[in-house]
Amino acid sequence: xxxxxxxxxxxxxxxxxxxxxxxxxxxxxxxxxxxxxxxxxxxxxxxxxxxxxxxxxxxxxxxxxxxxxxxxxxxxxxxxxxxxxxxxxxxxxxxxxxxxxxxxxxxxxxxxxxxxxxxxxxxxxxxxxxxxxxxxxxxxxxxxxxxxxxxxxxxxxxxxxxxxxxxxxxxxxxxxxxxxxxxxxxxxxxxxxxxxxxxxxxxxxxxxxxxxxxxxxxxxxxxxxxxxxxxxxxxxxxxxxxxxxxxxxxxxxxxxxxxxxxxxxxxxxxxxxxxxxxxxxxxxxxxxxxxxxxxxxxxxxxxxxxxxxxxxxxxxxxxxxxxxxxxxxxxxxxxxxxxxxxxxxxx
Length: 347
Hints:
alpha/beta, four-stranded mixed beta sheet, 11 helices, 21% strand
């Protein structure tokens, strides 16, 4: 019976749109407007890590694939050690690829959290197809793929999409050039003790469908098994220049990160209540003289009925979202945050 850790194996909805377009999943360089925010983890990075010469640096680029709601974003955040992607019980929370990274010694691991993948028969519309194909395209350009699945769900009510995707891993994307893949069974903490032996048989049956390089059993939410996976990925890095500077956990701006947190809190608060089309518009994100941050967003809704739900009785629902997002941002940035949220009906 596996613990929630690595066991080495031989090779055998609520869609919340944003007005900012993240069309590329590749790293992008930019001058950070808020280095005290984006480099918040740098104090934990040793001097020897920051000063690694370029010719001694090692890099591993990892694409995270899985069906919707498998826990890709939660795993990305757990590996990085900070919030870089929204997390929600709703499927399709990740609408575009998200980049996160962590660095230790000479090695850096760059993670690409991708939208949920499905087979061609489950694709609904051109927009959905674009998201799915972007996920496959990103993974194909990486050095390694983590294929993650909800082990608890797969044991209780097997998802046929998982079987089909693993059986055709690579060919589903129209390519046979998919890099080596790691099987990650997530949400193992939800499996009752009497069913834990089923985790071994589940992993065995999935490895029969594809030649996975290794297998990990984890709880991304609880952090169990994550340190072992994190170390394993570091060990797979090969000579190559880092994508981000040491201490940076993402290539996204402070405005992007604030938007991601607001999205997450809206997902969580209105899980069963809202229609699909909502837009969060970033208005401003700036540092004030006293060291605090002022963040303003507009939540655009399709009609007055939805506005009443989002605002709530005497503004209670919107206040709940704002307070939750503000507290998360303050924990993440280490600064006081003034968050202004306004709800408007689309014209």
